[in-house]
Structures are given as structure tokens and as C-alpha cells.
Design goal:
Layout lengths: L2 E6 L8 H15 L3 E6 H4 L19 H11 L3 E7 L7 H8 L9 E8 L5 H13 L3 E2 L4 E4 H4 L10 H30 L1
Parallel strand pairs: 1-2, 1-3, 3-4, 4-5, 4-6
Length: about 190
Amino acid sequence: MPRLNVVVASTRPGRVGHVVGDWFRDLAVAHGAFDVHVVDLAQLDLPFHDEPGQPVEGGPYVHEHTRRWSETTDAADAFVLVMPEYNRGYSAPLKNALDFLHREWHHKPVAFVSYGMTSAGLRAVEQITPVVVALGMTPVPRAVGIHLRQALDATGALVPTTAMASAADGMLDELRLLADALAPLRAAAAAA
């Protein structure tokens, strides 16, 4: 079964990213198409990029945190970025995490679960799409956008809708199709 890394991209105190990430993780596990792993950037605690070499050169990495991040990323066959929208864009910790590596992202599909107050995070997804393409990833056309004003109750708990679950299910179907279609390319790159 292909491995899916669900990357929770918000690191700020008081965030709702882990709530959205937990909801999506449970849906992805129930979907059954992937071996699901959550990677929380707040727990990963990467510093701002501090490797002396260029990621495109593929190492060797001198820092243990980079080696751990490389192994976690390399092991995945697909990704879902659970990402907030901050000031019409994506978060700096997410960009930093992407920029730490290069070849580990190649030939892997990526999907987005975004959230925000006005646009449900969709502007952040539009901005990050060229970044993941530049890293050799294949974005899934379907996404899940969550309007936090409507999806959170008075206590801050996520109240998922059937539309959110349906969008996530369709997105996971497409993600699995792409993961399978890109598997020969990943295998060829690993053998090279």
C-alpha cells in the first residue's frame, strides 16, 4: 500500500491546523487507499534552511534534522498539505520545509486541504502550486477548502460537513490514481 504523508503546515500557537489534520487523517485512514502518516511541522521543528549545500545537489546533508526530514519525505509516495492561508499566501514554515529538500519530492502527487477565514485557503493553494511543480511534484486538481467561519463551532472544534468529506474522498481517489501512475517514474529514479 502506498504511503501518504499528511503534512500539517501551521506551527503557530493556538493553531487549528492539527484539528483539521486530525479530521483529514481519520478520513484518509477510513478511505483505505494509503498507509497514512501525519507529519506535523510544529513537531518537526526545522530551523530555517541551514544546510551548506544546495538541495538540488541531493546532499550529503550535514544536519540530523535534515536527514530525518529527508527520510520521512523519501518514504512517502504521496502528500497532502494541510495548510492555512496567512495574508493571502502560504506559511513560511511550509515553504521552508519544501525548500530543505529536492529529489525527495520528485514524481510524487500532492493534494491540498486548505483553510482560512475568507477564501478557505484557496489563494494559498494557488500560490504554492508553482512551487510544488518546480520540485517535480504533480498537484491533484481536486482540493478541500474549509471556510473556518463556518466550520468551527464556538469552542473552536471543527464541525465537518458532508461536502467537506465528499471533497476529501474524491481527492483521495485522484491522489491514489496519480500515486500509482507515477510509481514507475519513482522506481526508475531510485534505481538511477
